[in-house]
Amino acid sequence: MSAITVRVPAKVNLQLAVGPLRDDGYHDLVNVFHAVSLFDEVTAAEPLDPAPERDPSAAPLRVRVEGDLTGEVPVSDDNLAVRAARALADRAGRSYRADLLIRKSIPVAGGMAGGSADAAAALVACNELWGLGLPVEDLMEIAADIGSDVPFALLGDTAVGTGRGERLAPLETAGVFHWVFALADGGLSTPRVYGECDRLREEAGVAAPTPAVSEALLAALREGDATALGQALSNDLQPAALALRPSLADTLAAGREHGALGAIVSGSGPTCAFLTESAERAHELAALLKDVDGCRSVVTAHGPVPGATVAG
Ligand SMILES: C[C@@](CO)(OP(=O)(O)O)[C@H](O)COP(=O)(O)OP(=O)(O)OC[C@H]1O[C@@H](n2ccc(N)nc2=O)[C@H](O)[C@@H]1O
Ligand SMILES: Nc1ncnc2c1ncn2[C@@H]1O[C@H](COP(=O)(O)OP(=O)(O)O)[C@@H](O)[C@H]1O
């Protein structure tokens, strides 16, 4: 096969409980991930130019990015998809080549793990393109070294992540949940939001709690109860995201006023997520939120959906 395309979903965090800062610079988490139907696509293709023995200057891994607002996505070796492909080649012990094309629909630096999704998609695509046949457990290990959210993009559906979010256990869910996402202008830096969370806790003299999964959330997922799920959504990073981007409070309030079952900042933000009763209600709410200040665009999606999957 000379090209493999993988489709990979965005995530929203249904619960993000942030524990103390660890010595390695990460926080212990209980992170309930939920994959939603907003997808990036990554194609890994055999390069058409001469093999390296004939052109030693040719880079083994190259990347192009297509889509709206892809300005902040690096097209260098720092791209998370390139880092993932390189880590996979290193594991296989050979200098494989690939041209990667990322078609982005997931907002960049939006708290929906688009970069992590691209890394997971690159692992699946290159594993196939290079005929490595590595099992998903091996891909999971490589994924965790790239970033805390990357393993979940391989797994998809709904899962709880512990440790720094990379140790996953799938969660039982029933039915389909309907979401509206309000995308903001510009991103928020994940380390900066974690740093602000620590700062706010210190300022308030509050010790970081030991993170624990919400039983109410687990029950709502098991029963497919959107009303209960809306009430159980929680995000310990939300106060920090709001401190750094105060306009998000207005976006969340607008969603609640228009009847969302739950309104929350997704992960480190600035994307805001709204849960609704039905696909129809999601479209109605999306239309109402379109004109809210600070809202760049609004999309609807459903979850859960599977993780990185070879297309076609
Ligand atoms: C906050 C979350 C919620 O799912 O995602 P986003 O909302 O940004 O997508 C994640 O915890 C982000 O995971 P990811 O984006 O993979 O982060 P990593 O590359 O592993 O780490 C980037 C930086 O975030 C901080 N970090 C990340 C994970 C963690 N458990 N504790 C942390 O403090 C650290 O400062 C770290 O250096
Ligand atoms: N393939 C990629 N897609 C998006 N961002 C990437 C990618 N590779 C590296 N990055 C960098 O990672 C940062 C965080 O990206 P992203 O995963 O979209 O956001 P978040 O961590 O908020 O979910 C971006 O600011 C960008 O500089």
From TrEMBL:
Q: Where do transmembrane segments lie in this chain?
A: none
Where is the GHMP kinase C-terminal domain positioned along the sequence?
217-286
The UniProt record lists the EC number as 2.7.1.148
Catalysed reaction, written as an equation: 4-CDP-2-C-methyl-D-erythritol + ATP = 4-CDP-2-C-methyl-D-erythritol 2-phosphate + ADP + H(+)
Q: Which UniProt keywords apply?
A: ATP-binding, Isoprene biosynthesis, Kinase, Nucleotide-binding, Transferase
Pathway the protein takes part in: Isoprenoid biosynthesis; isopentenyl diphosphate biosynthesis via DXP pathway; isopentenyl diphosphate from 1-deoxy-D-xylulose 5-phosphate: step 3/6
InterPro entries to which the protein is assigned, alphabetical: GHMP_kinase_C_dom, GHMP_kinase_C_sf, GHMP_kinase_N_dom, IspE, Ribosomal_Su5_D2-typ_SF, Ribsml_uS5_D2-typ_fold_subgr
Q: GO biological process: any one?
A: terpenoid biosynthetic process
- Give the residues annotated as active site: K11, D149
Q: Which Gene3D superfamilies match?
A: 3.30.230.10, GHMP kinase, C-terminal domain
Binding of ATP, residues: P107, V108, A109, G110, G111, M112, A113, G114, G115, S116, A117
Q: What class of enzyme is it?
A: transferase
What are the residue boundaries of the GHMP kinase N-terminal domain, all occurrences included? 79-156
What's one GO MF term for it? 4-(cytidine 5'-diphospho)-2-C-methyl-D-erythritol kinase activity
Q: What does this protein do?
A: Catalyzes the phosphorylation of the position 2 hydroxy group of 4-diphosphocytidyl-2C-methyl-D-erythritol.
Q: Which family does it belong to?
A: Belongs to the GHMP kinase family. IspE subfamily.
Q: Which HAMAP family match?
A: IspE (MF_00061)
Can you name this protein?
4-diphosphocytidyl-2-C-methyl-D-erythritol kinase
Q: Which organism is it from?
A: Microbispora rosea
